[in-house]
Amino acid sequence: MKTAVIVFPGSNCDRDLAVALERVTGKGPAMVWHRESELPDGTDFIALPGGFSYGDYLRSGAMAARSPILRAVSDAAGRGVPVLGVCNGFQVLTEAQLLPGALMRNAGLNFVCRTVPLRVENSQSLFTASYAAGEEINIPVAHHDGNYFADAETLDRIEGDGRVAFRYADSVNGSARDIAGVLNAAGNVLGMMPHPERAIDRAHGGTDGLRLFEAALGVLA
What we know:
This protein has helices at 14-25, 69-78, 88-95, 152-160, 208-216; strands spanning 3-7, 30-33, 45-48, 83-86, 102-104, 112-120, 136-143, 147-149, 164-168, 179-183, 189-192. The chain has 221 residues and is α/β, with parallel strands linked by helices. The protein has a single domain (3-216), classed as 3-Layer(aba) Sandwich (Rossmann fold), CATH 3.40.50. Strands 2-1-3-4-11-10-9-6-7 form a 9-stranded mixed beta sheet, with helices on both faces. β3, α2 (69-78) and β4 form a beta-alpha-beta unit. The longest helix has 12 residues, at 14-25. The relative contact order is 0.17.
């Protein structure tokens, strides 16, 4: 399997994602600079990392969403290639309109950095097949603009369509309906604010995040 991590100026979790992908696939991902216009041939999985792309100028993810490589990412997503956006990557996906909604400043106006419990809302997606519906897992968060927002009609639609992948099990940032992860209509694009790549080793606190990568990369036992 060929994977790729998109790197923007200001990304600081790209290596974390690379480590997670290599651990699962046995092969390091292609690190694709945002100014590229094409993905490597045969790319099977794309990840957009956390960080502060373009220093979060204008809005978090707004400038990164206009990078040349995002057109190739959008085209790949349209063909069914799995795309995972984590933290700032989630913000980029919403700004690029690959996912609905927007990410706003945390309700408490503070940076939040801790491990939080998540409830698995949809266990039938490509990314969540290793979890049970309703299962509680623990994944770290590290964000200042992690407050997921959408209008009531959009929230009703994504909930009705089963597109809420994860929900915070306790209040973290004021996110609308405590939504922590959202899928696109086809189920092959996931944006999540918590960092699954930081939960892949028991020595670092647990492997609940590793299970997401194993499911998405097709290496479930």
